[in-house]
Amino acid sequence: MIHTGICDLFGIQYPIFQGGMAWISDAELASAVSNGGGLGIISAMNADAEYLRNQIAKCREMTDKPFGVNVMLMSPFVKEVAQVVAEEKVPVVTTGAGLPTPYMPAWLEAGVKVVPVVPSTAIAKRVERSGAAAVIAEGGESGGHIGDLTTMVLTPQVVDAVKIPVIAAGGIADGRGVAAAFMLGAQGVQCGTCFLVANECTVHQNYKNKILGARDIDTMVTGKRLGHPVRAIKNPFEREFLKKEYDSNVSDEELEKFGVGALRKAAKEGDMERGTILAGQISGMIHSERPAAQIISTMFEEAEQVLNGAGKWVK
């Protein structure tokens, strides 16, 4: 079985993190991933401290394995959420959409392992100096907030730039992707889109069906004008957003207001026309709903076959 330093560092069976997806990565999904041998992640998203504290308590009731919290640094509640992470002594915190350095001293003092998502070598070096336990090199193939570089290009450069372990993310959905990440120097992977169709994922069934029916060309990127590009499944909302984005008569404030609440519409209400369906480019590779534990075990069985020069893809 594949075992890397990531397993030892975080106390997990398989070197895989589940991505922190807003309105999706809750205690049910996180506990299922942790029970399946990976590191489940609760998304703090734009929620307040009470929501996060309740999710942490619920997750602890559902698993005795390590889990983490993803802190979205653009959240209006980021300060109180960061305090909850320290107070609750969450084993691991991942961060996105900004620099976590202002909050890292308190987390480190509380014994929390900090694993920021990084879009460049410069940011990877900066968080390493601040005490990060590892970094997640996330390429633009991912769903949700993305950077400019691809996983294939970003991962090996981050590996060369830092001494701490690197976890690759973006475009990974099966054993081939895991094997490729290891060949690039990563010691683990983070996956989000493939867990959207886990049986334990509480996202609306319409959302799951969109992922299951997606093709390779069915995602698009919006939000570059606002400085925070996002990848999602093409639908009327995303096309209208893109149209407004390139309309000089639409202000940034109007554009931001247009997008408010769109993710919740899709994830919780199942609105596939007026909601944002965040998903990575690997959506076209996902064809069935399965338990989270099976997703993980199958992925690493396949990766081991590929790395050993066997398996259904080796010709």
Quick overview:
This protein has 315 residues and is of the alpha/beta class. It has 13 helices and eleven strands.
Report what the structure shows:
The strands form two sheets. Strands 1-9-8-6-5-4-3-2 form an eight-stranded parallel sheet. It has a three-stranded antiparallel sheet with strand order 7-11-10, with helices on one face. The chain has 315 residues and is α/β, with parallel strands linked by helices. The model has no long low-confidence stretch (mean pLDDT 93). It is built from 13 helices and eleven strands. Strand 10 and strand 11 (230-233) form a beta hairpin. Helix 2 (27-35) packs parallel to helix 3 and helix 8 (175-183) crosses helix 13 (292-307). The protein starts with a helix and ends in an 8-residue tail after the last helix.
Name some characteristics of this structure.
11 strands; 315 residues; 8-stranded parallel beta sheet; 13 helices
Strand content: 5-15%
**Record field, number of beta strands:** 11
Count the helices. How many?
Answer: 13
What structural class should be given to the helix and strand makeup? alpha/beta
State the helicity in percent bands: 25-40%
Order of helices and strands: HEHEHEHEHEHEEHEHEHEEHHHH
Largest sheet: spatial strand order: 1-9-8-6-5-4-3-2
Give the end-to-end Cα distance, rounded to a whole number of Å.
Answer: 23 Å
Largest sheet: 8 strands, parallel
Q: Assembly state here?
A: single chain
Radius of gyration: 18 Å
In the predicted model, the low-confidence regions spanning at least 5 consecutive residues are none
- Overall body shape: globular
